[in-house]
Design brief:
Length: 286
């Protein structure tokens, strides 16, 4: 498969629009010379050891859950280990992709997998994800005649590249023709400027901000009301088994013991501070 085809598959699996705004996701390193993607290495973190493994395997693509490049880079130098990894990826012609919080947010993704370790329960999303609609505003106005409508529409079309504006309907009545159109944030100002040049639209113009539709099941963090409450000790054993780990770090709250009951559990991959801060639960998993 070509790189762009692999990226399309990854996008279908978990759209990058689900990622948090602060995150750095997607294709982070793109080779200058395209080559078929035959070998893909999946890793939690791109470290020096992982890069050596990728080089030995002659990998074409590294999918690193955590983004190896996060903050802006002003130079590529050998003294910084992350910059060294980027240089080696470029020299080897390897692509590097990071999904991070898009995989956390997706329905059936990392957070759902984590919370599933405690057993069945009523699971809800803590921080709801919303669809990335391209149009952010709705403009409603009135024109007096079909001729005026055509003139306004032609001016709007002339300022549009074909994607920023969309007419959502027109309704004639005794007072004139009521028109509705949606536009992107970038098209809002030029569209309003055009409408204000015409007397009828100028007097009747109203601007509405469109809310993005929620995406059920997608978002950051999960809260599970367990079908069968367990003790803290049992919850720990369940998570050890689920994660395949011999040890977990535990911080007991004031007055809590290993025999305390766990009826609700809140989960967020990563530190989870912004997602879990106002959540009430018996157990927090991060």
């Amino acid at each position: 498969m070509e790189l762009k085809e692999v990226l399309q598959v990854l996008e279908q699996l978990a759209p990058l629009s689900l990622a948090e705004s602060w995150d750095n996701v997607g294709l982070l390193v793109e080779p200058s010379k395209p080559r078929p993607i035959k070998t893909v290495l999946l890793t939690n973190d791109l470290t020096d050891a992982v890069m050596k493994e990728a080089e030995v395997l002659s990998c074409d693509l590294i999918v690193s859950y955590h983004p190896p490049l996060f903050r802006p880079i002003k130079r590529l130098a050998q003294k910084d280990w992350k910059q060294r990894l980027a240089i080696r990826a470029v020299e080897a012609g390897m692509a590097v992709f990071s999904p991070h919080t898009s995989w956390d947010s997706m329905k059936g993704g990392v957070n759902d997998w984590l919370v599933g370790g405690l057993g069945s329960g009523q699971v809800s999303v803590l921080s709801q994800a919303h669809g990335g609609a391209s149009h952010s505003h709705k403009l409603e106005f009135m024109v007096r005649s079909p001729e005026e409508l055509n003139a306004v529409v032609e001016e709007l079309k002339a300022s549009d590249d074909g994607t920023a504006l969309q007419c959502s309907g027109s309704r004639p009545d005794s007072s004139g023709i009521h028109v509705s159109l949606t536009c992107s944030a970038s098209a809002l100002t030029p569209s309003v400027q055009i409408l204000l040049k015409h007397s009828a639209p100028c007097q009747s113009l109203s601007i509405l901000k469109l809310e993005k539709a929620p995406l059920p099941g997608h978002g950051q963090g999960r809260l599970s009301v367990l079908d069968q409450p367990v003790t803290v000790a049992t919850a720990i054993q369940k998570m050890k088994s689920h994660l395949g780990l011999a040890n977990l770090r535990l911080a007991l709250g004031a007055g809590r013991t290993l025999e305390s009951s766990v009826c609700t559990a809140a989960v967020c991959a990563g530190s989870g501070a912004s997602v879990l801060s106002s959540v009430q639960a018996d157990l927090f998993i991060t």
